[in-house]
Amino acid sequence: MPYEINPLPYAYNALEPSIDELTMHLHHDKHYAGYVNNLNVAIEKHPELFSRSVPDLLRNINSIPDDIRTAVRNNGGGDANHALYFDIMGPNAGGEPTGALADAINKAFGSFDQLKSQLSAAGAGRFGSGFAWLSVTSDGGLIVESTPNQDNPLMEGRVGILGLDVWEHAYYLKYHNVRADYIKAWWNVVNWSNVARRYQAALKREYLM
Ligand code: MN
Q1: Distance from the CA of 105 to the center of ligand 1, in angstroms?
Q2: How far is the CA of 116 from the centre of ligand 1 (A)?
Q3: SS3 content of the chain, % helix, strand, coil (to 5)
Q4: N or C terminus: which one in the chain shows less Cβ crowding within 10 Å?
Q5: Cα of 154 to ligand 1 centre, how many Å?
Q6: pLDDT tens digits for 8-64?
Q7: Domains of the chain: which residue ranges?
Q8: Is the pTM of this model over 0.85?
């Protein structure tokens, strides 16, 4: 069974003015779809791997056959990263997390504002292309990290629950070279209830696709 993209769960213009409609069309329908398509092309060479979930492939990236390992890393990562990225944004969002996730953030970072500034700095400081993450560690704690290219924290044994895409394709049409302005606006569209759902799953070592 080939891997499939998730339809965008809200309108393409729903994140305006933080993220513009054309960027959402290109990002979801071309970039994300391209990763999923290229993952399928790679896995066709070892079709027995279609029985495995994308998170399972990424957790075990070093055991993927040599001839497709880089393609699975880049495109399986691209699939997982974008499945999360579009899910943790939404209209009428922003604000702050509540409940157990808020408690865990306060415990790990001192305050929500501290998390925000650390994650923003991780995104701004990522040289070239990649993601900044809030991730759940193997002992259930929270950390901020950043990954290059389409790498995903699953490759390092962690479960990302909030991912900020800092590839130029995520912001260049509207924000041009000013990545910091995109990051600032992105906080206004974070869907904290979906991040909290991912937090609860991550405590059970699950990554939601
Ligand atoms: Mn992207």
Answers
A1: 25
A2: 20
A3: 55, 10, 35
A4: N
A5: 17
A6: 999 999 999 999 999 999 999 999 999 999 999 999 999 999 999 999 999 999 999
A7: 20-209
A8: yes
